[in-house]
Amino acid sequence: MSRIKLTFIPVKNKEILFRKEKDKIIMLNENSGDPFYLENTGAFIWEKIDGERNINEIFGCIINSFEGDPKLIKAELFSFLQELEENRLIFLDSK
After folding, report:
1. For the domain that residue 24 is a member of, what is the CATH number?
2. Do the domain assignments include residue 80?
3. Comparing C-alpha atoms, which of 38, 41, 22, 21 is closest to residue 84?
4. Strand 90-93 with 9-12, pairing
5. Domain containing 45: what range?
6. For 41-94, what is each residue's pLDDT tens digit?
């Protein structure tokens, strides 16, 4: 079971440089120099991460913008956020 909760607030790592190009976001960790690429839904989610919205609010944005099974979307959102956290692109604030 995931340790991520809908009330957590994803916050972007300030050491990550990023830019948007068409439907893609390219990120670079200043410390490691490692690139990370987001496309389509991943880029959409990245743009919703503002340090204010909690995961439930981001989930609502996805549900309102994309079609699909909400349970599957939620599971994929949690997995994606976990991947961003593991790559130190975000941290999850449990306020």
Report:
1. 1.10.10.1150
2. yes
3. 38
4. antiparallel
5. 9-89
6. 999 999 999 999 999 999 999 999 999 999 999 999 999 999 999 988 999 999
Cα Rg, the chain, nearest whole Å: 13
Residue 37 in contact with residue 26, Cβ under 8 Å? yes
Give the predicted TM-score (pTM) of the model. 0.89
Nearest to 46 by CA among 60, 65, 27, 64: 27
**Total domains present in the chain:** 1
Residue 93 · residue 44 · CB < 8 Å: no
| Separation of alpha carbons 86 and 89, rounded Å | 8
Instruction: Establish if 72 belongs to a structural domain.
Output: yes
pLDDT in tens, 17-47: 999 988 899 998 777 788 889 999 999 999 9
Examine residue 23 and state whether it is found in any structural domain, yes or no. yes
Task: Give the whole-angstrom CA distance, residue 33 versus residue 40.
Answer: 23
